[in-house]
Design goal:
The structure is a single chain. The chain has one domain: HUPs (Rossmann fold, 3-Layer(aba) Sandwich), CATH 3.40.50. Strand 1, helix 1 and strand 2 form a beta-alpha-beta unit. Strands 3-2-1-4-5 form a five-stranded parallel beta sheet, with helices on both faces. It starts with 22 loop residues before the first strand and ends in a 7-residue tail after the last strand. The protein is built from five helices and five strands, in the order βαβαβαβααβ. The chain is of the alpha/beta class and 166 residues long.
Length: 166
């Protein structure tokens, strides 16, 4: 299978002829397969001289609690911040001194939080791994990447890790 580039470039995005990136969002579920997208984003951040936000969302149904502080999943945030920090170090320790990386952990529905964070941060690009699920797995789980591509107000670069290719 060939590599692919998936871009959602709607009217809310800047219409510059030269891409000048200032801020990237690199969502991760902390899985081995998501390392490719984070690594790619950090390398791109280094090359472009822009900030990279590595963003982890603890999946939690948004209808359960209006206030994140009341949500039992909020007890996981400190542990997940530590896991994210370790994940970033393991994934791109050699680049961390050369690029501005900010790490954020939040609760919510992953695709919605990614789209909201990109808009809130005025991100120029979302760089996200896709797990390459097909068939019944794709139907049952769906694709966070597909939902982000369909809803994001900025371009989305979809990275398919080598391990997930058939």
């Amino acid at each position: 299978m060939r590599d692919f580039l998936s871009i959602n470039n709607n009217e809310e995005c800047k219409e510059d002829s030269v891409i000048n990136l200032k801020k990237l969002i690199a969502p991760t579920d902390l899985s081995k397969l998501s390392r490719a997208g984070v690594r790619y984003a950090v390398e791109m951040g280094r090359e472009q001289g822009c900030e990279v936000i590595v963003y982890h969302i603890i999946s939690a149904a948004e209808d359960w609690f209006a206030d994140d502080k009341l949500n039992p999943a909020s007890a996981l945030v400190p542990q997940q911040k530590q896991r994210l920090s370790e994940f970033v170090r393991e994934t791109c320790a050699d680049l961390l001194a050369k690029v501005e990386v900010r790490q954020i952990v939040e609760l919510g529905v992953p695709y919605k939080k990614i789209v909201e964070k990109a808009k809130e941060e005025a991100a120029d690009l979302i760089v996200i791994s896709t797990h390459g699920r097909t068939g019944i797995d794709h139907m049952l789980v769906g694709s966070v990447t597909e939902k982000v591509v369909a809803r994001a107000s900025c371009p989305v670069l979809s990275i398919r890790p080598t391990e997930s290719r058939n």
